[in-house]
Amino acid sequence: MARAFSDDLRCRILTAYEEGSESLKAVAQRFRVGLGYVKKIRKQQLKSGCKERPVGQRHGPQPRITPELEGHLRGWLQEQSDLTLEELQTRLLKQDGVRVCASVLSEYLKGMGLPRKKNATRLRTRHAGRATAAPGVARAGADMGGSPTGLSR
Q1: Structural domain of residue 13, as residue ranges?
Q2: Per-residue pLDDT reduced to its tens digit, 100-149
Q3: pTM strictly above 0.85
Q4: Residue 23 and residue 41 in contact, taking contact as beta carbons nearer than 8 Å
Q5: C-alpha distances in angstroms, 43 versus 4, 50, 51, 52, 147?
Q6: What SS3 class is residue 128?
Q7: Residue 136 placed within a domain
Q8: Domain total of the chain
Q9: H or E element at residue 35
Q10: Does 151 reside within a domain?
């Protein structure tokens, strides 16, 4: 993949064109760059007024969690470190008017390196090893003389 030209080259191209002795095509040939590139940077220079590369733009929607909200999250979790995602969502909605789904909030907290409360119900119901049938419950077809799959012909 092609790399971007340096700002130094960009400035030298624009300076050479501004001197007025050469056309855009001649400047492109002299610096061994494409005419399209020279036209593009000249257009950008006329629009912005500077020779340096314009600052890149952020694409996509703006993040809902701003630096101010990040500070709120940090403060709430320092005060009470066992807040659940649902509790954090409720606080964000009530205090700041911002609705954030649990998955986005979870990923944001991971990125910030902040802890979050584990789901106690899930931890209680997790068993080690494979799930087994309750006592007195037979596998389908095992004691009924049928096929092991429980299907008959």
Answers
A1: 7-48
A2: 998 888 888 888 887 565 555 555 565 555 555 555 555 555 555 555 55
A3: no
A4: no
A5: 17, 11, 10, 12, 78
A6: coil
A7: no
A8: 2
A9: helix 35-48
A10: no
Helical H runs in 49-138?
67-79, 85-91, 102-112, 120-125
Residue 152 forms part of a structural domain: no
With both helix axes pointing from N to C terminus, report the angle between 24-31 and 7-18 in degrees, rounded to the nearest 10: 140
pLDDT, tens only, 46-80: 988 888 887 777 778 888 888 898 899 989 988 98
Structure tokens at 109: 């907290």
Cβ count within 10 A of residue 124: 8
Type of residue numbered 20: G
Amino acid letter for position 110: K
Query: CA–CA distance from 47 to each of 58, 72, 130 (Å)?
Result: 19, 40, 67
Residue at 74: amino acid letter: R
59 in a structural domain: no
